[in-house]
Amino acid sequence: MKTVKLERLAYLEDGTFGELTSDCGFHCYTVERPWLDNKPWESCVPEASYECQPFDGNRFKGVVELTNVPDRSHILIHPANWPKELHGCIGLGNGWEITKTVPMVYNSKATCREFFAKVGKEFILTITSKSAILWE
b/e for 60-74, b at 16 or more Cβ within 10 A? Predict the structure, then answer.
């Protein structure tokens, strides 16, 4: 099974920013909600390894779901440029910016399409942090 690593670079007041790499050479940036003690629909997920599988729902089709997230469900990797567009999920982009304390990524729809085409929809995602950077 393919492996994907998400290294969180900054935990900010209004969101979390990271860098994603895969064993097949894909690279992009991530945006998530801030860490709020794993609160469903509001927090990024805990740092750990998760098996990911294809997901089709009412709102998002052809995306990926992280499985076995403690006390959580329906954690997806899907297009989103800002933390406010996420409810505990992960957005991908090919560029990034931090405006005040809000991280954002660029070209999320295209980046997700490229990610799924190169990596597929079944893989192990390991989430770590480079350091405990907290910007205020």
Answer: beebbbbeebeebee
Query: Which residue range(s) make up the domain with 7?
Result: 2-135
Residue whose C-alpha is closest to residue 77's, from 38, 129, 122: 122
Q: Which amino acid is at 103?
A: P
How confident is the model over 30-50, as pLDDT tens digits? 999 999 999 999 999 999 999
Cα of 5 vs its chain's centroid, Å: 10
The token duo for 106 is 């660029």
* Helix, coil or strand: residue 84: helix
First to last CA, the chain: 38
Q: What is the pLDDT of residue 130?
A: 79
Three-state secondary structure of 18-62: EEEEECCCCEEEEEECCCCCCCCCCCCCCCCEEEEEEECCCCCCC
* CATH number (domain holding residue 26): 2.40.440
Residue pLDDT, tens place only, 16-30: 999 999 999 999 999
